[in-house]
Design a protein that fits this description.
The protein is α/β, with parallel strands linked by helices. It is built from 11 helices and 17 strands.
Length: 379
Amino acid sequence: MNQIPQIFDVVIVGGGLAGLSSAIHLSKNNLNVLLIEKNNYPKHKVCGEYISNEVLPYLEYLGIDVFGIGAQKINKFQLSTPQNNILKSDLTLGGFGISRYELDNALYEKVKSQHVEMVQDSVIDIKFLDDVFSVDTKNNNTYRSKLVIGAYGKRSALDVTLERNFIKKKSPFLAVKTHVKGDFPNDLVALHNFKGGYCGVSKVENDIINLCYITDYDAFKTYKDIDEFQEKVIFKNTYLKTIFQNSTPVFERPLTISQISFSNKNPIENHVIMCGDTAGMIHPLCGNGMSMAIRSAQMASQLIIDYLQGKIKSRQGLENAYQKSWNNEFRTRLKVGHFVAKLFSKNKLADLLVTILKRIPKLLPQIIKQTHGKPMVVK
C-alpha cells in the first residue's frame, strides 16, 4: 500500500459528480490528489437524474461511456400545470437519463484506476495558514495540501464551520425521489407541476423511471406521511396521478432530503474552490444541476492545473479566474432558474405562461437555452 504523502497537491472534499470528476481530471495530469468521501459506493441520491448533452465530450475525456452503462437518450420535453394544461417541445441539444447510483459508481471505479488516494471519512474543518491547507476529519486525521476543492453537496455542517452566509438563511424546500417500473417514453423528460412544487420524470438505465419532486416543507408537514401528501396534493395533476398509480416501486421507500437552499453561494470560500451544489444550485425545474456540477469540475480542474504549472502566477489569480469563469458560465443560468421557478410556483400564472408558450412556440427553446450551456470543449 502506498504511503500517503505529507502534502497533497489537491484535497477534494466530497465524492459526488463534481468531486469524482475533478479527481480523475487532476490525476490524469499527474497531480497528487486525495479524495475524502463519507459514503460507500454505489449509493442512490435524491436527484433528477437528467443531464444535458453539453457534458458528453468531457465525460468521454474522463473515460466514461454513459450509454455503455445504460443511459437513455432524451430529446423531448413535456411540461404540465396543476390544471393539467400541457406543453410539449423538442430539446435542441438533448440529454440523457442515468441514475446517480450508476454514474457515481462509474466515476468512482475510474478514480480507483487512476490511483487517486481515497479516504472514507467526514471533514469537520478546513484551515488555511501560511499558504497551506489543513483538512481535519471526524476520525481525527489531518491532511495537508496546496489546494482544496469543496464538493460535498447541497448543505453540510462544514458550511456552518466555514461560516458561509447561505447556511444562516431558512431553507424551506424538501425533495423526494423514488424509482419505479412502468410505462413511460425512453426519450422524454417531463416536469409536472402541482400546488407548491413540481416533479421531474424521466427514464434511467434498466427501464427504470426516476420520479423526483420538490415541495415546500411547511406545506408538506401538514400531511401525516408521503402517501397522504401524494394522494391529496400531487395527484391533483392527472399526469402525475397516472404515472404513480400505474407503476411499481423499485425502492422499498422513497428517499428524502430537506433544508434544500437555492440561496446564492460564493464559489470561493476561505480560499477553498467550491464545485457542484456546494458552489450553487439551480432549481430542479430547469433540470440541469448535474451538468453544472460536472462543468464546474472541469473549470476548477483546468485552472488548478494551470496554477500548479505556473501559467497562473498566484493563488489570488487562480481564485479570480475561477470566480470569473463561474460567473460567466452559471450566473445567468441561476438567475433564469430562480425566475422561472418563481413564476411556476403560482398556479394561475403557470397556466397563463403555458398558454403563451403554446402560442409562441419559439419562446420555450430560448428559455431552455438560457438554463443550459454549450457542448464543453476539452483541452
